[in-house]
Design goal:
This protein is of the alpha+beta class and about 325 residues long. It has 13 helices and seven strands. The strands form two sheets. Strands 1-2-5-4-3 form a five-stranded mixed sheet. The chain has a two-stranded antiparallel sheet with strand order 6-7. Strand 6 (about 280-285) and strand 7 (about 290-295) form a beta hairpin. Helix 4 crosses helix 5. The protein is globular.
């Protein structure tokens, strides 16, 4: 249940209560609705959430000034306004990167964002997230009031993910192709991490599916998952990296990694749900400058693409 649904349910409950609930209601250990009510009321008091396309606005009820005062730089685009900050979070960032950039942009300690990210229930994560925020911090533009807490900012990102999941029919689409929603989101995160041009995403998704179907003869073999497991950034894993015992080492372990490796956007999720049809087992971005990616169905074709890559980068 997301924050908006939570608030709607809470207000509906309150409208039908004629008398205060008995004290014992708050003393019971298992009290899901009471806890949800407290979270919803806190969110209602501190933050207003609106979504327009891929843009989500999070602002304190007492802060609505729109005067532009400056702008920021880096992976996350930051625009400081009177009384609020506008953040544009790029697709494909890892959760650790997002938390660091939110901390820098808001001036709040990183540890506060890290602590808030661990409370999946409070953030409104779907059950299939298994309490982990990675993959569910949806990229987009956010207007943040200085009074917004880390939990409110992250909950807004999850709210936007939940809306995107509904728009793409993620749960039903995953069931249709024989996968869980978390598996689809994991595939989408790999597609996002491996893609330079979003036009190649449906074909890259097909490569992933084809490799998964070829197991145990073929591992997934994605450098992006290996590097994630080692907490490294880059495009290629080294020979030493490939010796990692991480569960994200898809050169050494069959199947998908245990969860998303970044936070994908709508295009990557759509590609994971609806991959192009084709026999491809390999892909190479033969020209990193232009993002041109080509696909192959055999080792010999793959070798040809690698040679083309070397000529373009040599």
């Amino acid at each position: 249940m997301n924050i908006e649904d939570l608030l709607r349910e809470t207000l509906s409950d309150m409208a039908h209560e004629e008398q205060p609930p008995p004290p014992g209601r708050f003393l019971q250990v298992k009290q899901g609705r009471s806890r949800r009510r407290g979270l919803a009321l806190a969110a209602a008091a501190a933050v207003t959430v609106m979504a327009v396309g891929s843009t989500l606005v999070v602002q304190g009820l007492s802060s609505v000034s729109k005067d532009v005062a400056g702008q920021g730089s880096g992976e996350t685009l930051v625009e400081t306004k009177q009384g609020q900050i506008t953040l544009t979070v790029k697709e494909g960032l890892r959760l650790s990167q997002i938390l660091e950039q939110l901390s820098t942009a808001t001036g709040r300690p990183l540890v506060e964002f890290q602590r808030a990210a661990k409370d999946g229930r409070a953030l409104g994560l779907p059950a299939y997230a298994k309490g982990a925020l990675e993959g569910f911090a949806f990229p987009g533009t956010y207007e943040v009031s200085p009074t917004s807490s880390p939990a409110e900012i992250l909950a807004a990102m999850v709210t936007r993910f939940n809306r995107a999941a509904e728009e793409s029919n993620l749960v039903k689409g995953a069931r249709r192709v024989g996968r869980t929603p978390l598996e689809i989101l994991t595939i989408a995160s790999i597609v996002q991490a491996e893609s330079i041009d979003k036009r190649a995403m449906p074909k890259i998704a097909r490569v992933i599916e084809n490799r998964l179907k070829h197991r145990p003869e073929m591992e997934l073999r994605m450098d992006s998952t290996v590097l994630y497991g080692l907490n490294k950034l880059g495009a290629s894993a080294s020979t030493e990296d490939l010796k990692s015992r991480s569960r994200y080492n898809t050169y050494a372990r069959l199947g998908l990694p245990p969860g998303p490796i970044c936070n994908p956007g709508a295009d990557a999720i759509e590609a994971a749900l609806k991959p192009d049809a084709g026999p491809w087992l390999y892909f190479v971005t033969v020209d990193p400058k232009t993002g041109v990616t080509k696909f192959a169905g055999s080792p010999s074709e793959y070798d040809t693409l690698v040679e083309e890559y070397r000529k373009n980068t040599g």
